[in-house]
């Protein structure tokens, strides 16, 4: 019986050109939202003096695709040749918070046309209402603070007593030639700060996700293997939370909030590569590759057969 050619190991997630920017963004958005209260806010407090003692996230989503149609919107040129936008709203009765809707229009017009805009509301009713027509000084948008996390001191973040701050050290500044030793220090510090094996597994999962942003997934995975760290996703908080919603939703939660590494190929090569890593359970491999447990078992059996031949 001829030996089967060993399956080719697929490219790691960071090398997959077909993965869309939107899909990548969704992965990182989810983990960053989870890590902001315990990781990003403490960093901002230390780096720019953000003054806060409590943070309560809004539960509702901010609409970012609101369709607004202005009553009249035009580009105008004055007698000096200066070009600007003119926006006019016609109102028979004026809502109390109209100034905020006009402010919304202003942001949209500035983004799309990149010109100054003059806003006028033409009141058509009998009575003139007493409403706010100008934003308060503290409500006026003047710009934003830009923080490049790679400018932050990686050693300083590594010295934190907060695990999520330590995790961000992988994205900060440290000598390139010390990358491997620095990664080992991060993992060792996370182990020290973990209150349970489940917590440690969750931190390692997050570290793997963040490592993609610096193209360090391969190295991070290599170090994890050398340190004999096994990731049992069933002990992590996201998995337990998802498991309560049923097996299917539990797996989805595990992918989204556990070790989500992006869109991956549903094929023999990928499953066999994960089996060879000997880090993930069969259930997690099935979830990551989006295949059935029977498929994973079949690949596992064939790998064992080829190894014996």
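Sequence proposed for the structure above (309 residues):
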């Amino acid at each position: 019986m001829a030996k089967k050619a060993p399956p080719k190991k697929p490219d790691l997630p960071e090398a997959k050109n077909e993965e869309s920017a939107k899909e990548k963004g969704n992965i990182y958005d989810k983990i960053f939202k989870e890590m902001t209260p315990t990781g990003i806010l403490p960093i901002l407090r230390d780096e720019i003096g953000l003054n806060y003692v409590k943070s309560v996230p809004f539960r509702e989503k901010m609409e970012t695709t609101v369709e607004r149609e202005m009553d009249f919107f035009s580009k105008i040129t004055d007698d000096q040749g200066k070009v600007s936008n003119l926006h006019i709203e016609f109102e028979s009765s004026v809502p109390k918070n109209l100034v905020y809707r006009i402010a919304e229009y202003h942001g949209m017009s500035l983004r799309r046309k990149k010109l100054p805009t003059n806003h006028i509301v033409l009141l058509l009713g009998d009575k003139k209402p007493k409403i706010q027509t100008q934003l308060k000084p503290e409500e006026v948008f003047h710009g934003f603070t830009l923080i490049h996390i790679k400018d932050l001191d990686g050693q300083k973040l590594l010295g934190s007593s907060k695990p999520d701050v330590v995790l961000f050290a992988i994205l900060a500044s440290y000598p390139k030639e010390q990358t491997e030793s620095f990664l080992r220090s991060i993992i060792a510090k996370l182990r020290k700060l973990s209150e349970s094996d489940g917590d440690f597994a969750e931190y390692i999962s997050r570290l793997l996700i963040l490592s993609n942003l610096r193209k360090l997934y391969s190295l991070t995975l290599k170090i994890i293997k050398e340190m004999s760290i096994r990731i049992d996703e069933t002990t992590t908080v996201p998995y337990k939370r998802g498991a309560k919603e049923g097996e299917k939703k539990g797996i989805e939660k595990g992918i989204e909030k556990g070790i989500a590494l992006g869109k991956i190929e549903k094929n023999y090569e990928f499953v066999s590569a994960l089996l060879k890593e000997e880090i993930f359970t069969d259930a997690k491999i099935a979830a990551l590759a989006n295949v059935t447990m029977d498929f994973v078992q079949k690949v596992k059996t064939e790998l064992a057969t080829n190894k014996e031949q």
